[in-house]
Design goal:
By secondary structure, the chain is α+β, with helices and mostly antiparallel strands. It has 26 helices and 18 strands. The strands form 6 sheets. Strands 1, 2, 5, 6, 7 and 8 form a 6-stranded antiparallel β-sheet that branches. Helix 18 packs across helix 23. The radius of gyration is 37 Å and the shape is elongated.
């Protein structure tokens, strides 16, 4: 929203009409734009002109003349070219009291709150965005039947978003009566909770319990409207932006929230009317003295908390920060998602990063308020929490230690202080829950969500205590390297610490190494410097300068494993077939004598004679086939020794095994039944044939290692990181390394964020 926010208005309606009470900034203006995208100035030809223009302007002139004519228009009319608001200096963005003009000394007679003099100084008071203030006020104060609901109005290139409220039919400001016990519906069910954590509503269902005394009676205020004015994104700057969702977020998290608080205070103490009277009197005084509107806007900040809140809210939104405002001594924190402006840009303009949009599971974990425009990491038990600097650089827990905490909230506050003191990037959220003896889902996770939403913390990957974590760098930083380096040098001036550029270079080069590629081996290299470099890592993580790489694992079914499983099947089928199926016997002997480098038939076995592909195997097969009849009796006599049972003893077993081996779900004679190495994409949902391959990998290994492999192999799909595997399987990193060592030939490991 930093790109599109133009102004914040407060409009009221009384018996005498509508009035624009206050606005910030004092002199807002929309950026110039075209009604449609203009052809590029660098690459231009007559063919880029649309047909209506060519039909109305084309004559005997050549295309070159047309090009010169249009290019001259481009050069002389640069003010119409689209520029994003943040690329140009906006003089109305902020004002300093030192810039106020002196009074002209003219006295302007008032008449019913309106000044009819046409002096030039009044133009600033009576006009805004090229419209008269009276016209805009009447436009933004709809009929009472349209109040207490979302207001969205598009006028030319301006969008007005708000939530107008008014008195009831008797002309009294009061809350609506309590409804039935069924849950809220419609808009209020989604946005009934403000960002300050207090459930409130612009048309509350129930009256607050704190307002027991009769509220003051309003004398003239009929309705008011807190309006957010936006510059509608130009088509040439947002190819696929979702403008409607963009407006919805602004309404729900800013316009509705502030209006809800103002409505409550107006009902309870007639606050809005009192503030408007103060602003109106000051405005009349400034006009009577002939002072410019800037003087009135700056003086209003000293006498009105609403005016001061509007200024603070505007500046916070323009800088994408949290707005800390106070309305009638009621503190309020208001913010917009930090990446909300990405809705206005096409996907090609936004550089691809690893903070992908939240899926349904993550959106449910974080909540609907944080689903759009936040680019959050997954909130999982194996993640960690990084505490950020508080407002104005203060400790996040400092405000909790003051004497203003209520006695009944003391226990809750003490628990939160313990949480903040325990939080560390070297501890996972599950570890913190264990140390605090808190429930992970009902206590730790809500606390983390609150801290992240109020920008007190961010969810990061868990960092190794000895800094043996592999990092990589993002494709770009949010700030220039020169600025970051200067800040780094001011904070870390130890002689053992290299420059920021040197650290970044070491991190970048370490990723290509096969071993010793973690942060300690590539940068620190001294155990005594670990505490100092721990602070450096925290400093870089707070500025999104590091991306943590995780170990991910996949299982590979090698040709040797598949050959072993195929051989076991052929042995069973050969025993069942007996000595009469000499083709099956030949295939069995071929598999037994095959080497890894032999070229074998990769198709499933069939009833046709075995036809090996290579001359070597063909010669061997023909030799065994010619000698097969002479060795049938000898082979039959030794089968009991080879397989451990006689034909009579295993006859019943073979019949049962054959049903399992050749069943409809056995996997034989399918596309995956080949001897080429392949990846088992999802070991947790392995087919029968894939499970045979996994079992063959464990033959001859230690039973404890085999049992552990069977437990954790379900997570070897390349999607689960090592931290998740350790958490879900409840094993140590050393135990994971043991499994990876014993099954090294069957595993593919790689690093990925």
């Amino acid at each position: 929203m930093a790109e599109t926010l133009l102004a914040i208005l407060l409009v009221t309606t009384s018996a005498t009409g509508s009035n624009l009470v206050y606005r910030w900034p004092p002199s807002p203006s929309a950026a110039p734009r075209l009604s449609r995208a203009r052809p590029s100035e660098e690459v231009f030809c007559a063919s880029q002109l649309d047909n209506p223009w060519r039909a109305s302007h084309f004559s005997d002139a050549t295309a070159e003349a047309i090009s010169r004519f249009v290019r001259s228009e481009l050069e002389t009319d640069n003010d119409d070219a689209w520029d994003r608001p943040h690329t140009s200096q906006d003089e109305s963005r902020s004002y300093s009291p030192t810039t106020a003009h002196s009074s002209s000394g003219e006295d302007l007679p008032p008449k019913g709150g309106r000044f009819l003099s046409k002096a030039p100084v009044l133009h600033e008071y009576d006009h805004l965005f090229g419209y008269s203030s009276e016209f805009l006020a009447n436009l933004l104060c709809p009929h009472s039947s349209m109040c207490h609901q979302k207001f969205e109005l598009l006028v030319d290139n301006l969008a007005f978003v708000g939530h107008p409220v008014c008195t009831d039919e008797s002309g009294t400001w009061k809350f609506k009566p309590e409804k039935s016990k069924s849950g809220p519906r419609g808009r209020e069910s989604k946005v009934g909770t403000s960002t300050s954590g207090v459930r409130t509503s612009a048309s509350p269902e129930t009256r607050p319990t704190s307002s027991e005394k009769t509220p003051p009676v309003s004398t003239w205020l009929d309705k008011f409207h807190f309006v957010i004015v936006l510059d509608i994104p130009d088509p040439s700057s947002s190819a696929s932006g979702n403008v409607s969702r963009y407006f919805d977020v602004i309404y729900e998290q800013v316009a509705f929230t502030v209006t809800a608080v103002l409505f409550q205070e107006q009902v309870v103490s007639n606050f809005v009317e009192t503030e408007c009277e103060t602003l109106g009197s000051l405005k009349d005084l400034c006009i009577s003295k002939g002072e410019p509107f800037l003087n009135y806007a700056l003086q209003a900040l000293e006498v009105s908390s609403i005016a001061l809140a509007m200024k603070a809210l505007y500046e916070a939104i323009k800088t994408s920060e949290m707005a800390y405002i106070t309305l009638h001594n009621l503190p309020l924190e208001v913010q917009l998602p930090p990446y909300l402006d990405s809705f206005l840009h096409s996907e090609g303009e936004n550089e691809l990063d690893f903070a992908r949009p939240l899926d349904d599971e993550d959106a449910q974990t974080w909540g609907q308020d944080m689903k759009l425009g936040w680019r959050l990491s997954s909130l999982k038990p194996w993640k960690s929490l990084l505490l950020l600097d508080g407002h104005n650089g203060l400790d996040p827990s400092m405000n909790l230690r003051g004497s203003q905490v209520n006695p009944e909230d003391r226990t809750l506050v003490e628990g939160l202080i313990r949480f903040l003191e325990t939080a560390s990037v070297t501890l996972s959220l599950a570890d913190m829950a264990s140390l605090l003896d808190w429930d992970l889902e009902s206590q730790v996770m809500p606390t983390v969500r609150w801290l992240v939403q109020h920008r007190r913390a961010k969810v990061v990957d868990t960092i190794h205590f000895g800094l043996k974590t592999v990092f990589t760098l993002p494709s770009k930083f949010d700030r220039s390297l020169t600025e970051l380096s200067a800040e780094f040098d001011d904070q870390f001036d130890h002689p053992s610490v290299p420059t920021l550029s040197a650290i970044l270079a070491k991190i970048s080069s370490s990723v290509s190494k096969q071993t010793d590629n973690h942060f300690f081996a590539s940068v620190v290299q001294n155990k005594d410097l670990i505490p100092m470099y721990h602070d450096i890592v925290l400093w870089m993580l707070k500025r999104d300068m590091l991306i943590t790489l995780h170990l991910r694992i996949r299982v590979v079914a090698t040709q040797k494993v598949k050959l072993k499983v195929r051989l076991a099947r052929e042995k069973t089928l050969a025993r069942k077939a007996g000595t009469q199926h000499y083709h099956r016997r030949g295939l069995l002997h071929e598999l037994e004598s095959a080497d890894d480098d032999d070229e074998l038939n990769l198709s499933p076995p069939s009833t046709t004679p075995w036809l090996p592909l290579s001359p070597r195997t063909a010669h061997r097969h023909s030799r065994h086939q010619s000698d097969e009849s002479g060795r049938q009796e000898k082979t039959a006599s030794h089968e009991a020794d080879d397989y451990g049972t006689s034909d009579r003893e295993r006859r019943g077993t073979d019949e049962d095994a054959s049903d399992e081996l050749d069943g409809p779900d056995s996997g034989w004679d399918t596309a995956e039944d080949h001897l080429r190495p392949s990846m088992i994409s999802d070991p947790g949902r392995a087919t029968l044939l894939q499970r045979r391959w996994l079992a063959a990998m464990s033959e001859g290994k230690d039973p404890s290692i085999v049992k552990r492999f069977q437990l954790i192999s379900q997570y070897f799909d390349g999607k689960r990181c090592d931290d998740e595997i350790l958490y879900r399987a409840e094993i140590t990193r050393k135990q994971l390394r043991e499994v990876l060592h014993h099954y090294e030939e069957y595993l593919q490991t790689f690093l990925h964020p």
